[in-house]
Each structure stands twice: as structure tokens, then as C-alpha cells.
Amino acid sequence: MTINAYAALEPAKPLEAFQYDEGALGAFDADIAITHCGVCHSDLHLADGDWGVDGRFPMVPGHEITGTVTAVGDAADPDLVGKRVGIGWQRGSCLSCEWCVSGNENLCDSSVATCVGNYGGFAERVVLDSRFVHVIPDALSSENAAPLLCAGITVFSPLLRYADSMSHVGVMGIGGLGHLAVQFAAKMGCEVTAFSGSPAKEDEAKELGAHHFVNGRDDDAMKKARNSVDVLIATAPANIDWRPYVRAVRKMGVLCFVGIPSDPISVTMRDIGANKAIAGSVIGGRHEMRQMLDFSAQHDVVAWTEAMPMDNVNTALSRLRENDVRYRFVLEK
Ligand code: NAP
Ligand code: ZN
Residue 46 contacts by C-beta under 8 Å, 6 or more apart in sequence? Predict the structure, then answer.
């Protein structure tokens, strides 16, 4: 079977039409006809070579996939055929280590990424392990569900871990991840502050559910925000001076990084000494993915999307690079 896709042939170059051959379906595989694929900043990091280039090109990015299962292998659940499904960053794991059996497949040492070392979702089809395919609840449209599969789970997981309805949650960076974090936290009953370098996003951040808006580039505003939030989810894709954000976290609070700057993050003991925690978090396990999709369906968490035909993938990537998106591009068939 030949699959038509869009690939980066080398780092930081426009993607080009690309074809590859997929072999016979493996026992647990599902063959999925893709209808939508979100454009995550991780796709941009990958295509730009920010996280390394060795053996990764040609690369077909795309890991916020929705589509319909058209066939499954002998050992896969036959009821999946015809279902509307989604796939996020992860397409496989060992399924037997302590992390996998405790529902933390995202932490497995043998985790397999959807579009690193494999061809991803900027394509008409994808074939991958059916056990990492998630059925999309009827209440969610395929376009709006796509960003939940990476951006959504990545912020939902640390909110489940660190926040409850009495928490004051800060979200730093109101982009693909951040606009969903604001919605999840607000709908979990938290008080929410959006920290953004884009003052023009204030009204929309409030529409998404933020109670407060702080311009992260305004030193006075950041001073006023000191000791304000219990949990701060940092989504920025680049390294900045994190000290004002560490100071925005209350004593015993946590600053959780989900954004992935390529260089080391620096904080001072003086700023974290009051029993503050610095944490990281990557995507989420399969159980959390189901919880997140159900929560979104039940509480009307909707990704704000700008759909465009898959042919326009390079426009989406260059506008994402310029922070010119409200709040997720979704490529459609
Ligand atoms: P995005 O849509 O581009 O949003 C990032 C937001 O961060 C921007 O909208 C902007 O918000 C802010 N920002 C952008 N450039 C900045 C800079 N130079 N300094 C400070 N703030 C900046 O990106 P995304 O798709 O949400 O992804 C964000 C990061 O999360 C990326 O690094 C991505 O690789 C990573 N990620 C991690 C995981 C994980 O499992 N941990 C999963 C998915 C993505 P304002 O305009 O509000 O300032
Ligand atoms: Zn992603």
C-alpha cells in the first residue's frame, strides 16, 4: 500500500509531497484513514531539527490525528473497524514494565512516538498499534478533538496530578496547549490566571475561562503576581528568564514544565526554597487519555481551531513559528 504524505526532507525546509510504502498489517495494527491532524509546536521543533536530526529525515510530522479505522490485524479488536478514532504522540510501548501496567505508558522506556522514527499524521493514512488508538466520543467533532490528543492530554495530566478545585492555577503561554489548560482548569473548578506575552489575547483568555490575565512581559504586572498560584503550567517552547514565574508560585506550589525549550532551564534555590517543586510532564497514559476525552465531551472543552487543507501545511508551520494562530491549526483531508 502506498501512502501519500507531506515530509520534511531535511531540517528547517518546507515540507514536500512524499510517498511511502506500508507493508502488510501487523497482528495488532489498525489502518486509519486520516480526516484531520493538528499542528503541534512539537511538529515544528521536529521539522526544524531543534531536538536533533540524526536519522530522522525524511520526516512526516503529525501526531494529533483523527480518522476512521478501515481495517485491523488478526489480533486487534475487530469492533474498531468503522470507528472514529484519535492518536496522539505515542503509538506504542512495551505494555509490560511497571510504568505500562500502572497506566503510565507515557513513561515507558520503550515508548514509540507517532512521528519520530515513524511516519506520522500529515498524510492520508497511517498504520499503527491499535492499542494506542482512542475512540472519540460522539460529542466531539473530529476537527476539535484532534488537538486534544496531544495538547489536551499534555496539560490535563499535570492538572489531574497537582490541582484540585481549590487550587489557583496559572497557565503560562496561551497557545495550543495553554488555551486547553485554561479551559480544563476552569472547568475543574480552579481559579485561573493566564500569563501571556500577547496582551491581545486577554479577552480570549477570559472567554476560555481565565479569571485573571497577566502580561508576562510587564515587570510590574509580574511583581504584582508574586505568590499567587499554587500550580503553574509552563507551555513556552523557548527558554526565558523563569525567575518571575518561579516567584509567581506560592510556597509549597509547583511549577510544571510541559513546553520543551532545547537548552537547560535555570532557577535559583532562593526562589524555590519555600518548599516549591519544579516538575516536568510528558503527555499522559492511555487511561488518562480516556478520562481527558470523556471530560472534554462532558464539560464542553473545545479546542479553538483554524482548519486548512493539508496542502497548506507549510503555511500552518510558518504561521505557528510566528505565534500567529488562535489556537491550533488543524489540517484536513
Ligand atoms: P504554541 O501553540 O506555539 O504555543 C506556545 C505559546 O507559548 C505561544 O502561543 C506563546 O503564548 C508562548 N510563546 C511562544 N514563543 C515564546 C517565547 N519565545 N517566549 C515565551 N513565550 C512564548 O505551542 P504548543 O503546541 O502549545 O507547544 C508548546 C510547547 O509544548 C512546545 O515546546 C511543544 O514541543 C511542547 N509540547 C510538550 C509536550 C509534552 O508532552 N511535554 C506535548 C506537546 C507539546 P503567548 O502568546 O500567550 O505568550
Ligand atoms: Zn504535540
Answer: 8, 56, 59, 61, 115, 116
Does ligand 1 have an atom closer than 6 angstroms to the CB of 330? no
Per residue of the chain (333 residues), give pLDDT as tens: 899 999 999 999 999 999 999 999 999 999 999 999 999 999 999 999 999 888 889 999 999 999 999 999 999 999 999 999 999 999 999 999 999 999 999 999 999 999 999 999 999 999 999 999 999 999 999 999 999 999 999 999 999 999 999 999 999 999 999 999 999 999 999 999 999 999 999 999 999 999 999 999 999 999 999 999 999 999 999 999 999 999 999 999 999 999 999 889 999 999 999 999 999 999 999 999 999 999 999 999 999 999 999 999 999 999 999 999 999 999 999
> Ligand 2 being an ion, which residues bring their Cβ within 5 A of it?
40, 42, 150
Task: Tell me if 104 CB under 6 Å of ligand 1.
Answer: no
Rounded distance from Cα 144 to ligand 2 centre (Å): 15
37: phi then psi, degrees, rounded to nearest 5: -150, 120
H or E element in which residue 245 lies: helix 243-248
With 0.85 as the threshold, say if the pTM is over it.
yes
Cα separation, 94 vs 175, whole angstroms: 32
Ligand 1 lined by 108 (C-beta under 6 Å): no
